[in-house]
Amino acid sequence: MADVLTKQELASKIWSTADSLRGKIRANEYKDYIIGFMFYKFLSDKEESFLEENDATKEDIKDADDDTIEMIQDALGYFIGYDDLFSTWVDKGINLGVSDVSEALGRFNQLIKSEYKSVYENIFSTLQGGLSKFGENMGSRDKAVRDMVDMTGEIPATNDEYDVMGYIYEFLIYKFATIAKEDGAFYTPHEVSKLISMIVADAISGMNKQHIQVYDPTCGSAGLLLTIGDALMKAGVSHDEIEYFGQELITETYNLSRMNLVMKGCKPAQIKVRNGDTLEDDWPYFDENTSYQPVFVDAVISNPPYSLKWNNVDKANDIRFKGYGVAPKSKADYAFLLHSLYHLRPDGIMGIVLPHGVLFRGGAEGTIRKQLIENNQIETIIGLPANLFYNTSIPTTILILRKNRQSDDVLFIDASKDFVQEKKQNVLSEDNLNKIFDAVKGRQDVDKFAHLASKQEIVDNDYNLNIPRYVDTSEPEPEIDLDEVYAELDAVESEEAKCVAEFNKMMAELGLKGI
């Protein structure tokens, strides 16, 4: 199949089949199931590749003893028995059913090596719990499972597996996001992730650090984390020297984040992803001996849920918010920002996507904003176009902050008009991204696009950071040449007089009265 179809064509085919098979299952749920099958195939193929590298085949593990199981666990972190391998499922054909899959997933969870539990434990819980939704009776569910296995089986296992499977994974995430608005699904467009990552990675590359820790407090399926990872590797950081911290509230999405990081080739030591509420349960931290030891990272990137209601009771003494104030209970935007800022190292940098309201709203948010400005912690503000995201059409803004800055200026960029339209969605082209990135690097005025504002300007604007106050994108009205207007009026009057004269002459010749 891979020799015939490109990965783009194969991804489109998988999507078409997946969408036709999902029936009445909501798109956002079905996404979790199909990706669960993909990941299981990934791990199963990986085990078979390991066996081949060691001059063995899957037939050699039909009656695997404890030593063989332990040997494979030491290498991979898990063990999948012969009957539970994905290729065995394919071989079963019409005899494969829901029970085969459910029991295999249960055994997988029991055969994870202890050191790998944080990466693999319960990673298939969403898929296992959703098998009962595949049909109204056992027969229809068995058929649905076989259809899913047949479809997933078309994805080739190659030496460059992520190039195909990873591409299809990201393609499916994107496609399901386009039809899952009603499910509350949230997807950060790759172009937005790429822009933040370009800016942050460029700053980190100047630190000359060998080991980099990055963190996303609302990591979703880890798309932002992996995009910053790609940007860091382009900047010269070794793949194995990037450590990924993340927290995700929704269990199903948390499972996807671990799958995504594993498929990208991250080792267990690099993956520090956690299932929990970031605002209620601070993370990351080390809890050895039950003591709170916060982790401080080189970079934080985040696209938290906008204007989320949260419990702000008794948060005034929370170390993350001390010295700034507490975000209002109706809008957690600044709570996410301050949480991210707290976990930065002194020389760290962060990028966060938020609604424009954080730039000008008053009350508790105005107090927090004023303190951030007085601390010189806001470095750049980028206004993005409207209609970039699938679950909201509102324009958003990227805030770049540093914990310790010597400069007190703030760069404002109005990129609201810099996009291309694809069907009903606005997207950032490569030219748009490069224009914004170059302005961030240059930190100087660009007519109708960027302005480097002094702190005094911002104070004079009462700490209001609304971008139109600093970047004027209006087009001037064309100047009116009155002499030219009068000349045109005279010409019209002259032409009118000629017409009247000719009309009167014609009427006189007819013996009629003119005007």
Mean pLDDT, rounded to whole units?
A: 90
Radius of gyration (CA) equals 30 Å
Largest sheet: 9 strands, mixed
Strand order, sheet with most strands: 3-2-1-6-7-9-8-10-13
Unreliably modeled segments: none
What proportion of the residues is helical, as a percent range? Answer: 40-55%
Instruction: Please report the distance between the alpha carbons of the first and last residues.
Output: 86 Å
Number of beta strands: 13
Global morphology: globular
What class do helices, strands and sheet pairing give?
Answer: alpha/beta
SSE order in H/E notation?
HHHHHHHHHHEHEHEEEEHEHEEEEEHEHH
Number of helices: 17
Beta-sheet strand percentage? 5-15%
Could you walk me through the main structural features you see in this protein, from its secondary elements to its overall organization?
The chain is of the alpha/beta class and 515 residues long. Helix content is 44%, strand content 13%. It is built from 17 helices and 13 strands. It has a nine-stranded mixed beta sheet, with helices on both faces. Strands 4-5 form a two-stranded antiparallel ribbon. A two-stranded antiparallel sheet has the order 11-12. Helix 1 packs across helix 9, helix 2 crosses helix 8 and helix 2 runs antiparallel to helix 9. The protein is globular, with a radius of gyration of 30 Å. The protein starts with 6 loop residues before the first helix and ends in a 6-residue tail after the last helix. The model has no long low-confidence stretch (mean pLDDT 90).
Layout of SSEs?
Elements: H1 7-21, H2 27-53, H3 66-76, H4 86-92, H5 98-110, H6 117-120, H7 125-130, H8 138-153, H9 161-179, H10 190-205, E1 212-216, H11 223-234, E2 242-248, H12 251-263, E3 271-275, E4 285-286, E5 293-294, E6 297-302, H13 333-342, E7 344-355, H14 363-374, E8 378-383, E9 396-402, E10 410-414, E11 420-422, E12 425-427, H15 430-442, E13 450-453, H16 455-460, H17 482-509
Parallel strand pairs: 1-2, 1-6, 2-3, 6-7, 8-10
Antiparallel strand pairs: 4-5, 7-9, 8-9, 10-13, 11-12
Helix pairs in contact: 1-8, 1-9, 2-8, 2-9, 2-12, 4-8, 10-11, 10-15
